[in-house]
Amino acid sequence: MNVCFAPCPVVFDLDGTLIDSAPDIHACVNTVLRLQGVRPLTLDQVRGFVGGGVDLLWRRVIGATDLPIEAHRDLVASFMTRYHDATALTRLYPNVTEALGVLADRGHPLGICTNKPLGPTRAVLDHFGIAQLFGTVIGGDSLPQKKPDPAPLRAAFAALGSAPDAPQGIFVGDSEFDAETARNAGVPMLLFLRGYRKTAVEDLPHRAAFDDFAQLPALVEGVAALD
């Protein structure tokens, strides 16, 4: 058992967990597609492609269009020039700022572990004025590995003072990638239900689920007390 002594570190996924960024990602994807003379994709299509990082996003976009796989590298480069500071359509989920503030006030070290590249991650945290709440930020290009490999999440917990090989803490995420990452790292996960998950809740390993960040501080305290 990984005993979580208070204050317990809490690490968050970003896209689909703290922020709804799919509209900005969708807009950037379609800008690139228009430049290629390709019909735009729908928001629901692009939302379903989010979670595995930019490379996987574009492999899925290519699979949904007539673009050649050989164009992948150039498409990613074109996308990144637009995605780096794309925040106009992104929104924090309700009560995120308040929940983060409560956890920080209670002494919980907070971190980010996302497959989003580090540059856009820092840009959106700065945009919403919450960057200072996080003691560490691990992006999709911070390490050779990406989620669901446990290495990025373990690195985040280690940076917050937890043992790297047997981390003590809680991961908060929304997707299949996040559930698998938490399981691989051996930490409990709290599942946010309003994100980009495609799998039924009962089919994902998680300690508890919630649909409003106002519920999160009490869930964190409950999991920390049990573990």
TrEMBL record:
NCBIfam families listed in its UniProt record: HAD-SF-IA-v1, PGP_bact
Functional note: Specifically catalyzes the dephosphorylation of 2-phosphoglycolate. Is involved in the dissimilation of the intracellular 2-phosphoglycolate formed during the DNA repair of 3'-phosphoglycolate ends, a major class of DNA lesions induced by oxidative stress.
Any single GO BP term: carbohydrate metabolic process
Top-level taxonomic group: Bacteria
Catalytic activities: 2-phosphoglycolate + H2O = glycolate + phosphate
Keyword entries, A-Z: Carbohydrate metabolism, Hydrolase, Magnesium, Metal-binding
SUPFAM superfamilies: HAD-like
GO-annotated molecular function: metal ion binding; phosphoglycolate phosphatase activity
EC number, as in UniProt: 3.1.3.18
Similarity annotation: Belongs to the HAD-like hydrolase superfamily. CbbY/CbbZ/Gph/YieH family.
Cofactor: Mg(2+)
Keyword field contains Magnesium: yes
EC class name: hydrolase
Biochemical pathway: Organic acid metabolism; glycolate biosynthesis; glycolate from 2-phosphoglycolate: step 1/1
Name of the protein in question: Phosphoglycolate phosphatase
Keyword Methyltransferase: no
HAMAP family: GPH_hydrolase_bact
Residues that coordinate or bind Mg(2+): D13, D15, D174
Cellular component aspect of the GO annotation: cytosol
